[in-house]
Amino acid sequence: MSLKGTLTNRRGFLVSVGVGVCGGLAGCLSDGNDAGTPTTTQNDRSATPETDTPEQVVKTAPSDDAPMTTSTETSTTSTPSEPVSPPLRSESGTTSYGIGLAGNPIIANTSDPTVDIYYWSDYQCAYCKQFEMGDNGALPKLIRNEVSDGVARIVLLHYPNYGDHSWTADVMATCLWNRVKDDRPDRFWEWHRTVFENQQLDGGEWSSRSNLLGYARDIDGIDANALDQCMKQNRKQHEAKIKQERKRARNEGFSDTPGFVLYHSGSDQTTSFFGAQPYSTFKQQIDAYRNL
């Protein structure tokens, strides 16, 4: 089933672009097609609902190690792409598209890029892993090209989608980033990548709190005990922020992960699509924005 991305601006115009094929609960597995001929219709972003019931935000009340909701995804195993060490930075404030930057890891060489890429993900999502680490993963190529050139920055956002373990992973990621962002942001990325490397789709203990902390203990420069304490003391606070990010993703039209919004501040236009899109999908739209 072909899906449509959307190119919109705040004046209410929408242009659709074909981008993927739906596959499983985690999002869409791209069919590799390039964007089709744009068609224009009316779109009013202000009509997007801004409320989200607790049932929509959390399927079960978050707890540290309760059994997670088992996904029915089929494992998409592939040889990991060559690891990258992205330039990670911490920023504050809110972008002109209304995305808060404080407390979120940002992959960027500049705070004033041509294009922002807002990326919502779940550590238990197979298609997020494919986007980041698959043999044709788009993220390493984006980092080596558009991020390296200062054209794009990627803002990592939370969208826990598979029960308690997803929430635990996102809370731990938030605690870890806040601890290492100023001195050793590379430690966050090593943990982040390790979680995806250990990802399994059987609903097992790989994503339990104890195992997530175990990955942290194996990385030099991370104080796993302090990380554990942060989760005990600040979980509710971090969950509140994560819920807001998840609600924003739903308001953008994403029911699954990964979800992407490419924003060009110069024209106030956006392109939205979801699933493990190939690098060519991102590059085509970024190049179009560069030429505006």
TrEMBL record:
Residues 67-82 have a biased composition (Low complexity). InterPro entries: Thioredoxin-like_fold (IPR012336), Thioredoxin-like_sf (IPR036249). GO terms for molecular function: oxidoreductase activity. The keyword Transport applies. The keyword Ion transport does not apply. Residues 114-266 form the Thioredoxin-like fold domain. Residues 31-96 are annotated as: Disordered. Residues 36-51 have a biased composition (Polar residues). Keywords: Disulfide bond, Electron transport, Oxidoreductase, Redox-active center, Signal, Transport. PANTHER family: DISULFIDE BOND FORMATION PROTEIN D (PTHR13887:SF14), GLUTATHIONE S-TRANSFERASE KAPPA (PTHR13887). Belongs to the glutaredoxin family. Belongs to the thioredoxin family. DsbA subfamily. This is Disulfide bond formation protein DsbA.
